[in-house]
Amino acid sequence: MNKDRILPNEPVSTPSPAPEAQSHEQKLQAMLAALWIRSRHTVAERAALLQSAVEKMAQNRLDKATQLSAVDSAHKLAGVLGTFGLPRGTDLAREAEVLFGQSTPPGKVEIERLQLLLAELTSLIERGPVNPH
Amino acid sequence: MTRRILIIDDEDDIRLVAAMSLETVAGWDVLLASSGKQGIERAGTEQPDAILLDVMMPEMDGPTTLLKLKASGTTSHIPVLLLTAKVQGPDQIRFAEMGVAAILFKPFDPLTLARQISTALGWKDGG
Hints:
The structure holds two protein chains of two kinds.
Chain A: H1 19-58, H2 64-81, H3 87-100, H4 108-127
Helix pairs in contact in A: 1-2, 1-4, 2-3, 3-4
Chain B: E1 4-8, H1 12-26, E2 29-33, H2 36-46, E3 50-54, H3 62-71, E4 80-84, H4 89-97, E5 102-105, H5 113-121
Parallel strand pairs in B: 1-2, 1-3, 3-4, 4-5
Helix pairs in contact in B: 2-3
């Protein structure tokens, strides 16, 4: 089972949804899959911006404009990834938004956490949802 | 009954997913706007049954857009639902005082978005 689906696959023992609902779901899934293909480039660019920002952060070169862009990108990723069937991506992006948004300079622990979660986020985006919803 | 919903969001992906969700699942007509300014204009001319409004937008954000919609005689009656990825407790109270009908959260489930809107507005339809 793909853990990143918001809606889990229906267990075999549960009643099937009404044919009309099933049809809606199938149609919507096909549309979401097509939209993901169109959108994944933008999504990957936002993740790349976060990677670049954390590299600057690690070198103590993160300027205010890049920091604000990182917060904005993380916020947008948090809002959209779960809708495409990647709720883990939303969780990671939310954490990144908080860490990038801190007013105090980040410590080594925060930077290492950001590097780890962004590596996971990038990997998730590269794989994409197996089946959006 | 075919509802007409105006979605105001600066993100293309969110607008498109929300639109296909409401059209496919609920059979509603969807109008789109990519900024607060454009949304206010469309709301005035198109008179939708409800507005789904993003909070964080450049230039004119959601709360400012909401205030302008509520201040205008042609749009003040239209229920507005905020769609946001992050709302702190004090913000929820502030939005309620500004006359928001409901707050929905991103990421939303495309299969149940219409139902969430219907439930929030007391509509009987919504998939």
